[in-house]
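In the current project phase, work has continued on tokenised descriptions of protein folds. One protein thus recorded appears below exactly as we store it.

——
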Amino acid sequence: MEQPLIKARLTQSEILSDRTKHLEFEVQGEPQFNFIPGQFISVREPRSDGKLITRAYSLASPPRCDNRFHLCLNRVDEGFMSNYLCDLEPGHEVHFHGPHGHFVLKSERKDAVFIATGTGIAPFRGMIQWLLAEESRHQGKQYWLVYGTRHEKDIYYRDEFEQLAHEHPNFHYVITLSRPPDDWQGAKGYVQEHVREIVGERKDMEAYICGLNTMVSANRQQLKELGWDRHQIIYERYD
């Protein structure tokens, strides 16, 4: 059955890097847009030949008592929708359906490590902001966000996560660069190397993983080798 389409107006467009945008939308005709942190929407727009194209994007914001949501996306070479959205000017509208998806926080929460590369950070921005917004959601738990990218210029939402880590002693933010500059003082290498250091021999945690398939697979395999049950590993691939 055809999904009913909803309209959203772009209110703000921000450049995060040379190929990445942060977009903020306001749902039209609705006072509130309800979703669960980690879910996605499917944007549908026509190409110049009239063919409708649909692409899924994770919601990069937590639910609030309003009708707004954020997206974080890369331009894709020859990709219609990513370039369409990145070129969109504030005031213009898009059509979408959703929210959809099961990449969400478990209701019975444990200490957890969130593992992301690139725009895989999008659902974690919503999850972590939501978790830390109320003490009852994170009290007594420890959370790590391990974010990996090649270059320092591609660390998305860095100031926000550093501020959250400063405000919440139980939230730990680890950035690792695979191609760091000579003066880089932070972690180096791939995310799975630092995940192993964090979890050690613990088997009473959860892992949420989002990014490209090679990274997701490497972390899933490592955690299984460390004795984790597959139900402790929640993941979403972007390719």
Remarks:
- Residues 213-225 form the longest helix (13 residues).
- Residues 68 and 213 are 30 Å apart (CA to CA).
- The chain is about 25% helix and 35% strand.
